[in-house]
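A quick aside before the break. I want you to see a complete sequence-to-structure record at least once, exactly as it would be stored in a machine-readable document. Don't worry about memorizing anything.
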Amino acid sequence: MTPDGTAPGGPATDGPGWEDLRSRVLSWRDDDPDPDTRAELDDLLARAAGGAGAEAARADLADRFDGQLRFGTAGLRGRMGAGPNRMNRTVVIRAAAGLAAQLHRTVPGTPRVVVGHDARRGSAAFARDTCGVLTAAGCTALLLPEALPTPVLAFAVRWLDADAGVMVTASHNPAEDNGYKVYRGGRTEGPDGRGVQIVPPADTEIAGHIAAVGRTGEVPIADEGWRMLDDGVVAEYLDAAVGLLDPASPRDLSLVITPLHGVGGRLLSAALVGAGFPTPRMVAEQAEPDPRFPTVPYPNPEEPGALDLAVATASRHGADLVVATDPDADRCAAAIPAPDPGGWRLLSGDELGCLLAEHLLDRRSREDVGTTAVIACSVVSSQRLRTIASAHGCRHVETLTGFKWLARVPGLTYAYEEALGYCVAPDLVRDKDGITATLLLAELVARLKAVGRTVDDALDDLDRRYGVHLTDALAIRFTGRRGADAAMARLRHRPPARIGPGKVTSVDDLTRPEAGSHLPATDALRFRTADGLRVIVRPSGTEPKLKCYLEVVAPAPGRSLSSDRAAARGLLRGAAADLSRLVDAR
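That is the input. The structure line, written in tokens, reads:
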């Protein structure tokens, strides 16, 4: 087989479609600076030219060259591999060149950019390529000293007063993926936006500059000249994180932690010990960074089974609390002992988000802080946060999903979203941060333990004071994007009269937000029913599915917590089943 994908006796494939694809593959391969991904394309071309695997190889190539990874508000994220629709050195070099060009149009003088990376396959090389491109383009590039959590990068952008930050990570995505997050700061943002992920129009501006890049081989890349930061940035982050806690609060707590093979374990343990807690017990099988994530199907603490090893460890040692961070440690999940002997229960994102909010606001009231707190959550998170804010005399703000929106709320004190993201110290890290959130949770649980109470007791307090709030979520998948779009259109044009047993009393189309709303237009529908149910339906931004978020509210006081919760659970089950039928009516 020849290097251009033809058989010695002539091509095994023909037709203008294949010839056009093969031409694009060869052009990309010849411009690729990475010998590994060049060899990957050579192998696919050879197999596509004939033989038993030709059809599969051609389909693989067609997928790799079906457009390109889109640079948006999440930066880049996708499967590793060769081609424009994958994460690879070519895509990263072009992204870095586009970012440098956009910064030079935005920032006078020499832009300063902090670059970090996690321990995934390719992350370190992508970070070095980014520094090389930025340096050659006349920017000052500052590289974090090792594979570190995303919150350290977000902290460094603010601490170093950089104009931008780049974090190479795919967060909690599968092992085959990698990604590229961009943060803005310094002279590109006001004080409430420093160290926050990009939003429009910055993303489209960067994407436009990426599209204007010519051949990758012509992008200048320096071999040196960037500055390698020392461990001082990590020490500063840890000192600031530990300083969030009340030094007089109890510290007696038995804690099991797991970083799920990511980069958060060492720093999380150091932060807990630095704050005065006993050394946490780390899940040995998941303690070290490993890009294969061998003990979990998906390295996402939301996924069933992700915390099984941690819970087993906690059961053996009689721990008080289990905490898992995702691979880049910007999110965290917590499990608590259940009433059943030896049992454990995973807290929902809304339960943990409201517990942290109440804890922080109680602390503020004891400390007699003069300024009014501003707390925020995403539109799909629990309505309980609004009630908590009102009870504490705080301002509540609701935003679209994603911390790129939450972290931009002016004067922010605290924010969370139901997908296990918590920003407990916006002046420190203006993004979600699993490490500082764990510190605040540990402080709360130790304080409860010191007076003979549990997390379940604290949750009961929330229900008695603010009413029972139960939440659930479901995803309804389709074979293609068109199916999801069609289902969304049906719901919009023929909204249901009932969801579960309750009559629908209002329908809000969030493409047309209400006057005075803080929400920009977004493709989502919000339904409310007469029996206290709220349902939000929106299309996934990355997959052919609709995501549905349900919440039932039973205002306090009710007959009893147990009866109110049982009624709410029944309503949720019925509504979820009915919603699946309504949405999936193809």
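Two observations worth writing down. The longest strand covers residues 468-477. The radius of gyration is 25 Å. We'll return to this after the break.
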